[in-house]
Structure formats: C-alpha cells, structure tokens
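Example record

The entry below shows one chain as it appears in the dataset: sequence first, then structure tokens.
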Amino acid sequence: MLAFFRVVEVGKFIRIPFSNCVQIITIPVLINLKLLLRRPRFNLYHSIDGSRSAKISMPRKDFTVDGNVARCNWMITSLSKDGRIMEARRLFDEMRDPDVITWTSVISGFIKCGMIEEARRLFDRVDAKKNVVTWTAMVGGYIRSNKISEAEKLFHEMPNKNVVSWNTMIDGYAQNGGIDSAMYLFEKMPERNVVSWNTVVSMLAQCGRIEEARRLFDRMPERDVISWTAMIAGLSKNGRIDEARLLFDRMPERNVVSWNAMITGYSQNSRLDEALDLFEKMPERDLPSWNTMITGLIQNGDLRRARKLFNAMPKKNVISWTTMITGYVQEGESEEALKIFSRMLSTNGAKPNQGTFVSVLGACSNLAGLGEGQQIHQIVSKTVYQDSTFVVSALINMYSKCGELKTARKMFDDGMTSQRDLDLVSWNGIIAAYAHHGCGKEAIRLFNEMRKSGFKPDDVTYVGLISGCSHAGLVEEGLKYFDELVKDRSILVREDHYACLVDLCGRAGRLKEAFDFIERLETKPSARVWGALLAGCNVHANAKIGKLAAKKLLEVEPENAGTYMLLSNIYASTGKWKEASRVRLKMKDKGLKKQPGCSWIEVSNRVHAFVVGDKSHSQSKLIYSLIRDLHSKMKKVGYEPNNVFLSDEYEDEDFSLI
C-alpha cells in the first residue's frame, strides 16, 4: 500500500478565447506545479479549462433541402465529434454532391483532430464549396495549431468576412502575444459585437496594459457578465483589488464565474479573510469555487484551513486532489501528500492526471521512497500518461533521487529509441540526475549531445549543468558555462544560477572570488547565495569571509540556527574557541536550536528513521555494537574522528561512533 507521497504549484490566469459564435470564459484555478524540475515552477500543468487554442465549431443547423445530404451531414458531424474522422471522410467521399455544409463539417473535423494539413488539402480542392464559415474554421484551425502566420495570410485572402472571422483572428493574435496586431485589427473592424470588445479588454488586462483595458471597458456600448468578469480579473491580477471589488459590487448580474474571479483576486493579493468571507456569501458554488478557495489558501501558506475546506467539499475532482497533494509537498510534508494520493486512488471518482503524477513522484523523490515510486510507475504504465514527457522526466528524477541512476538513464535512452519525442524537459531531467550524483563529465556530455539534437538550453538546463560541475570539481568548466549563460540574453539569470556559481567557487576554495562576485551583483543576494558561501567557508575554515557571510545571512534569516552553528564551527576549526563559544551562547540566548540531522532506510517495506544520538530504535543496542566494530576497524587503518564540530548539547554522547 502506498504509504508516502510530493507536488509542485501552478499559477493562475484568466483567458477568454472567442471563436465562431461561441463565447467562452475560463477563470483559472491552478496548481502551479513548476515542475518538477523547475518547476518547475514544474509551471501546473493543468487548469480548469482545457486547451488555450481556438475552438472549432461544427455547423449547428443544416438548412439542406435534400434529405439524403442532410442525413449525411449529420452523420459526418457526429463521427467528427467522436474523433472518427476517417469514417467521416469515407462517407464524404461516397457522396455524389456534398454541399457547403458537408465540406465545412469534414474540414472542421480534420481540424478538430489536429490534422490541419489534410484539412487544408480539402480546402484547396478546385471543387471545394466554401463560405465564410468554412474560411473562418480554417483560420481558427491554424490558430489552434499555433501557426499564426498561416492564419494571418488566409484571413487576408478571405473574399468575405463577418464579425466572427474578425474575432477569430483578433483572438489568434492575443493568444500569440501579438497585442498591437490585435488592437490594429480591432480598430479596423467594420462592425463589432460584445465578443470583440471582451476579447481585447481581456487581452490588454492580462498583459498588464490595465489602463487601456479600463478605458475600453468604459467605452463599451454594451456589456455582458463576461465583460465585467474579465475586467475584475484583470484589475485583480494587476494588484488593484479594491478597484476590482468596487466593480464587482456594481455588476448588474453575476454568475458563479464572477464570484470565483473575485475570490481568486483576493487570494492573489494575499487577502484570505476577504476571500473566505466572499466564499461563504456565494449564492451557489461549483467545483471551481471550492478549488479556487483551496488553491488560494495553499498559495498563501495556510495549509490547515485548506485541508479543512478540502474535507468539507461535497464533491472532489482531480484538480481538488492534486491541489491538496501539491500543498503538502510544498510544505515539506511529502508523507502526508502520499497518503492523500492513496486516498484518491481508493475512491472511485477522480483519476490521476499528468499533474497528479508529476507531483506525487516529486513526493517520492523527497522521501527517497523507491518502493512507492515504483508502485506509481506501475500505475502510470497503465494510463495514457506513460509517454508524457513531463511524467517521464518526473520518473527520471525520482529514480535518480532514489539512487537508481541506471534505471533513470534507461528510461531516458528508451525515450530516444522509441517513437516518443524527447523534449527539453526530458534532457533537463537526465542532466540534473547526473549532476545530483556528482557525474559532472557525463552531464556535460549530455549537454553537448542535447545541443547537437537541436535543443536550445534554458535556465533550468544551466542550473543542472553548473551544479554538476560544482559537485564534480570541474571549476573552469562551470565558470565557462556560467559566462556562456550571462552572454545569452534570451535566458534570464536567476538566483539559482548565482547560488550554483558561488557553490562552485566555494567548494574549490576560491572564496574571495565568490565573495567579490556576490558584492558585484546588481540585485540583493538571497539567503541561498550567502548560505552557499558560508558552507564553502566552513569546508575551508575561512573565518574572515565566513563571518561576513554569516552576518549577511542573518540579516536575511535572523532566526536560522544553522547559520550560528556553521559560524561556530568555522571559529572552532581555526582554533578560535572563545569566538565559537560566544556564537553558541548568543544562539542559546535567542532560544534557537538546530534540528538534529535525520536519515532513514527502508528494509522489508518498513521505513527505519534515525536522528543524531538516537537510541529509541528497538534494535539500537545491536546497531551501536556494529557501529563500534566499524569504528574500531576504521581506526586501525588510520582514521581519526573530527569532533570539533559537535555542539555542546551532544558533548556527553559518544558521537565519535556516528
């Protein structure tokens, strides 16, 4: 039975795609789960809506006079909706005289099934019957396939356009970041409807041009509930939550999506009490309402109230379960995350999706729970997610963290030889795996191989690569890759990269170089950066720089007992006992106590955990006897224990045995 289980978080955004005559609004509730490796970020991976692509609509009414043609049209539409496009095509080919509705239905069917080239071949046939709906469907198909240039070219070739055609192209620009192109088209529109206005208002609000969005909103000749909700979500996202609430209170009518948007806004701006108050006042709640509130609580670190709300849910879906799993992993409670996953499996409702597997495999990585990870791998192998690059990367990461580097590499190599396309996430995963095990040269070899395969490294790639160089002592190589990263203006250099570089220099004893680098940073160094320097000072007993690093680190994290311990150890290792004692005394005066180290091992499906000086285990006498025997053998070959770093509270214990 699954005993333990981890997750990643996902951000939130609002989107309002519009195409054909369908209006859709989705207020997100996410799990940012930045993956796994990024996490990132593993950015979640799932939101309440499906894809962000343009929707393809089948003709809804058939005004065909010929009854036989009308029946064939209905069958083609039905088959296409069911994904049986080749059967629909055979029926189409058997028809004597298909009309424009037939042509539009089968072209739309191919588009819906992702077969855009086949749709275009039909569209370009000399005998093809097309109207404005057919043309618009084809434009929407290119947008759905992220081929904005082809969509744009086809749009300009259209002999006739209606308001839906214009809206489709504007939404295509909005989806692909072409904000100015969308606005240019909007201004050129011969006529606009409320969908046109909603599209541009939402687009401007979501890209941060909130003032322009508000001006357009105020100019709208008519507004519907989507207009108001889009504006509220945009104001909330841009930090103008009070203005969003004023707008919410002015709404002539609200639906459940409007309430969800306002609750999301309060959560995004860390105003949880107001979010909960609004949640309690909702006239009706749907599943996204509950998920929105739970996600907001988790993102603001209130796991207790999130769990209480989760338990009170009348119904849960996969997002509910994954959100809760994510929360526990983020709080370092991976064991509880695994228990929730186990509960999820025992219910006959929600089934795990890609995000769930990525998160729960992360929990196994945190716990080094190989047995649980292998069980989850078996579950994954029976689902459609076994070929997902995100899930495969999570599996590679899990096996690596559990010490099974050969298994991790085999999974990666199997992906290269199978029909599954490896993406950048997969490459990052295997590079990070070798880096984690200190195999820097192999990480570099894989990095070079990745480039030869046509993949451009991103920020995550360089974190793994430089970290691998650091663990393997490849200082010059690490410096070279960091310099390469800085020169690549397309990649944002993050705190993680700075910390890796400082760690690289610190491990090699180049502490002055590392300190000077930190001093030159334009941004304020994080605790992680100073912590890496302090760790290097501890290894190389550099009290001068260590004192400076500790001072800076305590400014960022004044209650971190580990910082005092490291500084005390540095003084002790250089024979400065008075300074070491003074640091320990200051630590005690503040009431700080370093948590003892903990390790665990799984034997016969049972996890045995140990802390420093632990004698609570049922077999502790036998364990200590074996340790003494091992220690005796070590002494015979010349090993001398170093007790300099033992804290006062453990002085009376026989820690030379541990």
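Notes for this example: The longest strand covers residues 598-603. The beta strands are 9-10, 18-19, 22-23, 598-603, 606-611.
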